Amino acid sequence: MTLTRRQKAAVVLRLLLEDGLAPDLTGLSAHQQATLAQEMGQLKPITRDELQSVVGEFLGELEELGLSFPKGLGDALEKLSGHISDEVAQNLRQEAGLNGQTSIWDLLSEMEPEAIVPLIDGESAEICAVILSKIKVGKAADVLGLLPGARARRITFAISQTSGISPVLVDQIGESLRVRIENTPVSAFTKDPVARLGDILNSTAAATRDDLLSSLDETDEGFANQVRKAIFTFAHITERVSARDIPAITREVDGDVLVRALAAGSETYPDVVSFILENMSKRMADQLRDSMSEMGAVPERDGEIAMTDVVMAIRKLESDGEITLIAQEE
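and the corresponding structure tokens:
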């Protein structure tokens, strides 16, 4: 089994906890801590050889790391507390703007891209260019990917025009964003209604899902159409999954579950089953066909569950950055 770096981190953490060690994870962001916990909860048993390989790689990286230093001036001053005068430390904090408040750019960098998009909605391309230039590169790329193509291109061009912007203006933009965030009512949900209903319907039986969407059409057709775009089911694999990602997906799904999903889908979604089998090695495809033949008819409920498991595996690979789904056409 090929493990991702996140899964390897979960393996190392599990090993440390098994030995009675308690590594301090509070330095990680809330998102990183949650991701680590999720990875640990989803890992399947690994062999002794795989464990030794992960530990060996971890120790090798530790040996390569000669010495680590504090993360920024604030962390450095914490570590130097008691070794330099309070007056010098206070002057340094004031000069660097370290007044105990988290930097707005660090705050934005830890937010989900979907939460940043509404904050920059309505702002000029130049303002957006400043904001995306100040947050983490990966997060800025994710935000651009959520914007309409024309707007994303205007912002991208505007980034090339920001070299002469003054630090004072950057601070003003940051403070304006902070005020907007602080004045935004706290929501009980991390996702918007469309995404929440889409997640629910992803795991709903096809007949029930179609019936609910038909009913929703009668009350709010616009909302129903948005939900349809948020839904990703077994039937959408041929449209949204790249052929080159099929091997990664089949490795992620338990063998018995995959056979059950393909056997069930061969009747209702034959094009999806053919797409999956045609984009893997011939030997593996032949083995799966033999297993499907031996399994025979799959109960409808069991088939639905297996196909949903395949979809969940695809979603996990997407969230881990292992694959990228093809964007839906408007």
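(Above: one complete record from the training split.) The chain has a mean pLDDT of 81.
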